[in-house]
Amino acid sequence: MQTIVIIGGGAGGLELATRLGDSLGKRNKARIVLVDRHPTHFWKPLLHTVASGKLDPQAHQIAYSAQAAEHGFQFICGEATRIDRTKRCIHLAALRGDDGGEIVPARTLPYDRLVLAFGAVTNFYGVPGAARHCLTLDSVEDAETFRRRFLLSCMQASARAADGSGDGRVDLVIVGGGATGVELAAELNHTVRTLARYNVHSLDPAKGVRIRLLERGERLLPHLNPALSRRATRHLQRMGIEVCTGTAVASVEHDAVIDGSGVRHPADMSLWAAGVEAPALCTTLGLPLNRIKQIIVTPSLQTVDDPNVFAIGDCASHVSPASGIAVPPRAQVAHQQAMFLAEVLARPSGDALPHFRYRDYGSLVSLGPFAAVGVLIGGLSGREMLVGGTMARLMYGMLYHKHVLSLRGFARTVAQGVAHWIRTKITPPVRLH
Ligand SMILES: Cc1cc2nc3c(=O)[nH]c(=O)nc-3n(C[C@H](O)[C@H](O)[C@H](O)COP(=O)(O)OP(=O)(O)OC[C@H]3O[C@@H](n4cnc5c(N)ncnc54)[C@H](O)[C@@H]3O)c2cc1C
């Protein structure tokens, strides 16, 4: 029986492990193994809502072990540190406890076929001080760190204003006017007002927290239609968020972000959301990579030099043969590639492999709890439809439910939706501690 190992249980990897477990694992046709460095899965597009305190990540995490037991695959918790393609084995780091003591020693794991699905990390583009001083949104831990720091900054500024030792203001700079930066800025505006309502701070909600969004390009949300970028910009400005386009960041210090013209943007906190690159593990594989270290794959999602190794999602670079353009690092892509590989890997090895074709269904960007903008692409003609407002926000919310549906089935998705709705009725709209 062959062993198929998937490294990374994110948007792509967990859906793939679930499908392959159901089709091959449960019938003993192959051993399916999922490796992730965390014990639970969290859907990354929701990280900005964790950072803003709107969502409790505990309630939306899926335990890999439970998913594995129900869907016929094995889960191993560990961080892949090296892949030996000659011996076809993966090296996993030792698991350590909170005090640093070794819980499980370093191990190796053999494979027949391997799927790399370990996502991407923040790209600081070598900007001096950025990695040291900016927070990021790569994981639940990052989002929780941001949330706590933001809450404490508001409380501290409020206390200092009360005793006359401060000006009663928090300066937050978000670098990057893509979807992550825009969505976080909009959510935080709502958070500041809610925290004031619950007397967590006494800052003026309109002026007490200055959120400044710096974007190198000429407009926010460069992947969307210019009309939608203008709409999103107006929406954020109405909320009091300062939008600075055409502003490239030259360096970051502990209390300021400095742009290419030498302007200092004061920052009690700064967050870097200006792009991604594949993790350093990619550079150890001896496989061809693109300029952001993503693994270059063939039209069948196999790595160029090794037909037994596949790559999907953010760590892979797949150029669409139709457009000649690399598919973007998005959950939608990871999902479609996982569905494709679930079919391909279920075939007997040796069969000719089909080609993956990405279908773009559009893109939605949330502008806080009550609005979103985006474009939907549908029908045979592939016609684009611009959407906005509350309707678009409802559609945005459905994207997460679609992901849960593919992992947990209809009944549990509905139950989780109802539980979430009840929680919103019995707890404050934002986490207060
Ligand atoms: C804040 C934010 C908002 C976003 N919003 C959207 C959105 O609105 N729409 C959209 O389409 N996309 C969005 N994205 C992008 C989307 O989340 C990614 O494209 C998608 O998650 C990629 O899926 P993946 O399976 O490639 O990787 P991930 O989902 O990133 O999963 C990677 C997994 O690999 C594990 N891992 C990493 N390294 C190792 C290792 N060495 N060993 C073991 N395990 C490892 C990680 O723990 C993780 O579980 C957003 C991303 C962020 C950060």
TrEMBL record:
<comment type="similarity">
    <text>Belongs to the NADH dehydrogenase family.</text>
</comment>
<keyword id="KW-0274">FAD</keyword>
<protein>
    <submittedName>
        <fullName>NAD(P)/FAD-dependent oxidoreductase</fullName>
    </submittedName>
</protein>
<dbReference type="InterPro" id="IPR051169">
    <property type="entry name" value="NADH-Q_oxidoreductase"/>
</dbReference>
<dbReference type="Pfam" id="PF07992">
    <property type="entry name" value="Pyr_redox_2"/>
</dbReference>
<dbReference type="GO" id="GO:0019646">
    <property type="term" value="P:aerobic electron transport chain"/>
</dbReference>
<dbReference type="InterPro" id="IPR036188">
    <property type="entry name" value="FAD/NAD-bd_sf"/>
</dbReference>
<feature type="domain" description="FAD/NAD(P)-binding">
    <location>
        <begin position="3"/>
        <end position="338"/>
    </location>
</feature>
<keyword id="KW-0560">Oxidoreductase</keyword>
<keyword id="KW-0285">Flavoprotein</keyword>
<dbReference type="InterPro" id="IPR023753">
    <property type="entry name" value="FAD/NAD-binding_dom"/>
</dbReference>
<dbReference type="GO" id="GO:0003955">
    <property type="term" value="F:NAD(P)H dehydrogenase (quinone) activity"/>
</dbReference>
